[in-house]
Amino acid sequence: MTDTATEAQAHGVVITDAAASKVKSLLEQEGRDDLRLRLAVQPGGCSGLIYQLYFDERSLDGDAARDFDGVQVVVDKMSVPYLDGATIDFADTIEKQGFTIDNPNAASSCACGDSFS
C-alpha cells in the first residue's frame, strides 16, 4: 500500500485484498489499463447521500488518489471528508455478492446500505 508520488493529495479510503483482486479481474476482462476505481458521494437516497463506485478514465481537478498494489483508487476533493477511513470490500457469498463500503463517518444509513447521512 503506497501513495502515488504523482498525486498532490492522498485520501483515507482503503481497499481490501479481496476487493482489489476483483477490481483487477474486472479491468482484465475489460482489456483496459487506463481506468481507475473512483469512489464518490452524491446527494440522494433515503438517508441523504449515496455512494458512487465506478471505473473512470478521467482525472478531475483536486482528485485524491492512492495506489493499492496496482489498483488506483481516486476520490474527488468534495467527497474526501465524507469518506476518510472508509473501506471498500468485496463479498462473494450465497447471501451477498458485490462491493461494500464500510464508512465510519456515516451517522446513519438506510436498510439497503446504499445511502447514509
Structure commentary:
The chain has 117 residues and is α/β, with parallel strands linked by helices. The chain has a single domain (14-104), classed as Hypothetical Protein Aq_1857, Chain: A, CATH 2.60.300. It contains two helices and eight strands. The chain has helices at residues 17-30, 80-83; strands at residues 14-15, 36-43, 49-56, 64-68, 71-75, 87-92, 97-102, 115-116. The strands form two sheets. The protein has a five-stranded mixed sheet. Strands 1-6-7 form a three-stranded mixed sheet. The longest helix has 14 residues, at 17-30. The N and C termini lie far apart (29 Å). Residues 1-7 have low confidence and may be disordered.
Short description, anyone?
By secondary structure, the chain is an alpha/beta fold. It is built from two helices and eight strands; from the N terminus they run E-H-E-E-E-E-H-E-E-E.
Q: Order of strands across the widest beta sheet?
A: 4-5-2-3-8
Overall geometry comes to globular
Beta-strand percent range: 35-45%
The percent range for helix content is 10-25%
**What is the chain-wise order of helices and strands?**
EHEEEEHEEE
Low-confidence stretches: 1-7
In terms of topology, how is this protein built?
Blueprint lengths: L13 E2 L1 H14 L5 E8 L5 E8 L7 E5 L2 E5 L4 H4 L3 E6 L4 E6 L12 E2 L1
Parallel strand pairs: 1-6, 2-5
Antiparallel strand pairs: 2-3, 3-8, 4-5, 6-7
